[in-house]
Design a protein that fits this description.
The protein is α/β, with parallel strands linked by helices. It is about 50% helix and about 20% strand. The protein contains 10 helices and 10 strands. Strand 9, helix 10 and strand 10 form a beta-alpha-beta unit. The longest helix is centred in the middle third of the chain and has 33 residues. The two termini are about 50 Å apart.
């Protein structure tokens, strides 16, 4: 995220012009804020900027408001550099700036090489930190999201199931798991190949996600198997939901014009369950559902 746009918060246009010319030589495009109105109306997003330069004598915006403007997310904010032209150092102002999260505080007079060097240092450090944060977020995403179906990962669903079992036990409420399988996928992959099969699974998952309630959670358990957790739902209601899902999913045309065949195993969470036990019951119900000529829905 190394861009070349900066925000300069100054007292007047003349001061801004001096800094603008200085940074222009380094390839930066500067945006001016010179009064309360322009500060309040400034609309460029923080993630579009490289850093923020502030005249320490500005009174129309507090250091806390400026650092908040620099905030990108809960853990990152743009580099904020205060420039002080006062003859006598203001220790109170200096302490306030660093307490609020300002990155640097420069006293005038300074030479152009000094401020450019400091700006480059903070910008490059921020850029490295930002890229690191992106990599960490991607790793976290890989752990919680199944990359093929874009549903909750199996590992994450196991943790959610454990929490849901404890919740149901504590508050004497019901929750149910639906274990479903796209039965016709193996034949399809045998005919058209794995890449085509993966596209079908992805489209199927998208339709499945669009068909469940907002409170429900879906996970791809493996292959073309999916688990749906239905909080605050007894087994009879889950059976009704399964029938509705079956009707909708079976009418899809995602397999070269052929309608997919889907089977459902339903199991209600028990107080003494662990995640694997409830899944095993739902899988057993699925195996019974697959034997049915019609319906393809079984309750454990």
């Amino acid at each position: 995220m190394m861009n070349k746009q900066i925000l300069i918060i100054e007292l007047n246009q003349k001061n801004f012009n001096v800094l603008e010319e200085l940074f222009m030589k380094e390839g930066y495009k500067s945006y001016a804020v010179i009064d309360a109105e322009s500060f309040n109306n400034f609309t460029l997003k923080s993630e579009d900027l490289a850093f923020i330069i502030v005249n320490a004598n500005v009174e129309y915006a507090t250091v806390q408001e400026i650092v908040k403007r620099a905030q990108i997310n809960a853990t990152l904010h743009l580099p904020v550099i205060y420039v002080d032209s006062a003859k006598e150092p203001d220790s109170k102002k200096l302490a306030e700036c660093f307490k609020a999260g300002v990155n640097d505080y420069i006293k005038k007079p300074f030479n152009s090489q000094e401020i450019i060097a400091r700006v480059k240092y903070h910008s490059e450090e921020f850029s490295r930190l930002y890229e690191y944060k992106i990599r960490v977020d991607k790793l976290g995403n890989l752990a919680t999201i199944d990359q093929l179906s874009k549903t909750t990962s199996k590992m994450q669903m196991q943790a959610v199931l454990k929490h849901q079992i404890n919740y149901c036990k504590r508050y004497t409420t019901k929750a149910t798991v639906i274990y479903l399988r796209l039965l016709s996928i193996d034949k399809f992959i045998g005919t058209f190949g794995l890449p085509s099969g993966e596209k079908v699974i992805s489209k199927f998952a998208k339709e499945l996600k669009a068909s469940i309630r907002d409170a429900d959670m879906i996970s791809r358990w493996g292959g073309a198997d999916f688990v749906i957790l239905l909080p605050n739902t007894a087994v009879k209601s889950a059976e009704f939901i399964s029938k509705k899902l079956k009707t909708k999913l079976s009418n899809m045309t995602i397999m070269n014009g052929a309608n997919p065949e889907v089977a459902f195993g339903v199991s209600e969470l028990q107080d003494d369950d662990d995640p694997q036990e409830v899944i095993s019951r739902a899988q057993y119900a699925l195996s019974e559902a697959k034997k049915q000529t019609y319906g393809k829905i079984a309750i454990a």
